[in-house]
Amino acid sequence: MFLGLLRKRRSIRQYEAQPVAQEQIDILVEAMLRSPSSRSLNPWHFVVVTTPSIIGELARSKPHGAAFLAKAPLAIVVCGDPGVSDVWVEDCSIASVNLHLAATDLGLGSCWIQIRERNFDDSLSSEEYVQKVLGLKDGLRVEAIVAIGHPKEEKQGQPDSSLLYGRVSYEKYGQTGGSIVS
Ligand SMILES: Cc1cc2nc3c(=O)[nH]c(=O)nc-3n(C[C@H](O)[C@H](O)[C@H](O)COP(=O)(O)O)c2cc1C
User: Fold this and answer.
1) For the whole model, what pTM was predicted?
2) Any atom of ligand 1 within 6 Å of the Cβ of 112
3) Is the dihedral of CA 148, 150, 155, 160 positive or negative?
4) What is the pLDDT of residues 63-120, one digit of tens each?
5) How many Å lie between the centroid of ligand 1 and the Cα of residue 110?
6) At how many degrees (to 10) do helices 22-33 and 88-105 cross?
7) Domain parsing of the chain, residue ranges
8) Which residue blocks in the chain are alpha helix, DSSP H?
9) Domain 2-167: homologous superfamily in CATH
């Protein structure tokens, strides 16, 4: 059940050394390519990386929150073309979430690494750094890297008590409703 998948989904940052099988990579690619996009313009480009040295370079794309990627057997870099769609960020986000959920469904662990709006250092953005590492074509933007591998850590799904039901209004903003009150 899809809700069961959502209930168990977590960000997993520790991975076994075992590679992700090509059949599983193919399913992950299919999940991304089945994403809806505004006006069906499909502005995304995905770079699937399994070469450890390139993954190691990507793991240095920002000072915080990316180092764990170095030990992942698979990284998928989610890029978008603003020349194709003005809402490439939304489209890339949907594809990234589909990827994250498909990985969970396959029993893999995954975690989003934010690249857009982040910096490599004082003079270079994380996007510029990743563009150089991967040799992206001019104009292609980088939203995120999704790290993927067989999980080496176990996490329970987020508890029901953590769900922000108070952020949900009914009919008008601020009006309570529904049957679950937190
Ligand atoms: C847009 C976005 C950016 C994120 N960026 C990072 C990141 O750069 N590094 C990281 O370790 N986790 C990142 N995460 C994962 C969040 O930290 C994680 O989803 C959040 O702490 C909730 O934990 P959970 O996913 O296990 O439920 C990101 C998640 C999202 C949705």
Assistant:
1) 0.97
2) yes
3) positive
4) 999 999 999 999 999 999 999 999 999 999 999 999 999 999 999 999 999 999 999 9
5) 10
6) 140
7) 2-167
8) 2-8, 22-33, 52-58, 88-105, 126-134
9) NADH Oxidase (3.40.109.10)
